[in-house]
Fold these 2 entries.
Entry 1:
Amino acid sequence: MESKILKIGHRGAKGHLTENTLESIKKALSLKVDGIEIDVHRCASGQLVVFHDFTVDRITNGTGEVAKHTLKSLKSLKTKGTYQIPSLAEVLALVDNKSLLNIELKGQDTAKEAARIITFYVDKKGWEYENILVSSFQEGLLETIHKINDKIPLAVLTDRNLGRAVEFAKTINAVGIHADYTMLTEEIVTELKEEFKVFAFTVNNLNPLARIKSYGVDGIISDYPDRI
Ligand code: G3P
Ligand code: CA
């Protein structure tokens, strides 16, 4: 029997509502996703905030680096669609262990605080480690998480070098390889699946969706998770 392919909403449900907002995440949940992917940065007051870019310029009415704004300052901004930038704590409270949460460490210096808050939500708020997946393109951030709490499931992101991703993934006991879908063939997926869960990102159009599904990946990350 074919195993189920997890439907993961990219930045919430980016194709439907402004990315990485609580509203976009609620939309993804309403589309019955198996998981939600979000990006995090550390802001000037120390909290992790859910945001993709390194600056706020593209999708808010503010300017400047996310890392140089305090949480209060980021909260005063409006995103496209007039939503707020959420903190990671708000997202953990909203999702509340009801689906997989794939937290991509995007910004510098995000690992320690991510490990702390995830451990807290597991120990005190009913989250289970199996519903958390921390991914990053940055090896150092994943290494730090692994050193602080090796129970946190990790995935290595790659958009250029699968061999390198695999070798590094072994050193941190990563459970997954998350690959740009354009790098994948059926043979590559079959080989990767001998050791890892394989997620493909970011697959939005119907033809590539059908092709990637036929390879038997474990999960697909899409702006339109309802198309998977
Ligand atoms: O996690 C997969 C994907 O989100 C990585 O690329 O640029 O959309 O964060 P990006
Ligand atoms: Ca991402």
Entry 2:
Amino acid sequence: MNNLSQKRILLGVCGGIAAYKSAELVRRLRADGARVRVVMTAAASEFITARTFQALTGEPVLSDWSDDRTGMDHIELARWADRILIAPATADSLARLAHGRADDLLAAVCLASEAPLMVAPAMNQAMWRHAATRDNVELLRRRGVQICGPADGEQACGEVGPGRMLEPQALLQALSDAFCSARLAGLKVVVTAGPTREPIDPVRFLSNRSSGKMGYAIARAAREAGASVELVSGPVLLDVPPGVQRVRVESGQEMLEAVLERITDCDLFIATAAVADYRPAKPAQQKIKKPVADTSLQLEPVTDILATVAALDHRPFCVGFAAETEQLEQHAQKKRLRKGVELIAANRVGNGRGFESDDNELLLVWEGGTCWLPKDSKARLAHQLIEKVASLYPQRSNKQISSEYHAKHSA
Ligand code: CTP
């Protein structure tokens, strides 16, 4: 499975003969849909030019402090990255990382970044075996740095042994695997996304501004966490996330039916769709023509899909969204209890926030806790939400949830 689409990969290139392979790695990452930016050390430019990486990434390449035009570019890069890979990572660069140095641009970016770090060592076999390198690698490993390789074999210097950088295909796979957390492995997840369209006549409908981006990001994050994911989607122009099964629907009623068909063996239900609350009571069979005698539109309620699923006897763990213009936490808490769900992700909407945007911010509300996820891309927020869901999920069985729900609602 390709987990790399839209992922932001910062590639650090150090001075080693294997640097030429990094160009091929960038090409493959781009082919898999990743966004790539490159930081080179001064020594790397002895082996490959910045122009090569610039042409392959379509982005400026930074190599020394004079490339940091604003003085803050290295911080911006550190925040931008979803993951940092240093390939090739020389013995010197491993030593610098181990000691927290920040006197070259690449080391400074690594120190300033909270993104997970991977390194692909490449050096002479004796340098790799040296006690100093062993200690540095061990220290980095203990700090959570993922060490990829090195491979054994014939080296550029003519010696044979460990120290060859892994091939681009192996590094690509390691990066892709790194985005798959397995936190939801073995679970079936159903996600609703997008707006619904409630017909007035065959050509007109009532709808809303939902872009579906949050729901699609969540479906993708759940898949990357190892779940099997079915996405019940209203009409949006978004690509199906890799590995996700999508079913398209139009109206709230169709969405309800598609969800109920899939819910029996489902472990987790995440309702992100902006389902219409009301629909025209009597949609016309033919196009309504002018002049119209009665210009008012009679509406009737649309079934609440989330509340319906949460009220089932054998129900999945339920997560809902709350789109609010005011009193975020109060409305979110009330909505959680009213709908009988485990977790509500609340966000402010209106004035350009929430709908149609690539960014969002969320307040997560569950029984006994809240947590604020500050403004970030919907893709990253989706991962954080899935992490939270995964941490809450095993604490409660279906039976528990069901009896609590009935106790609450029969009171
Ligand atoms: N929802 C749903 N079916 C509906 C309406 C809403 O499944 N017919 C789900 C949404 O997907 C979301 C949650 O319920 O997860 C809350 O949606 P929201 O529009 O914020 O709230 P409403 O229930 O519509 O309440 P209100 O309009 O009063 O805020």
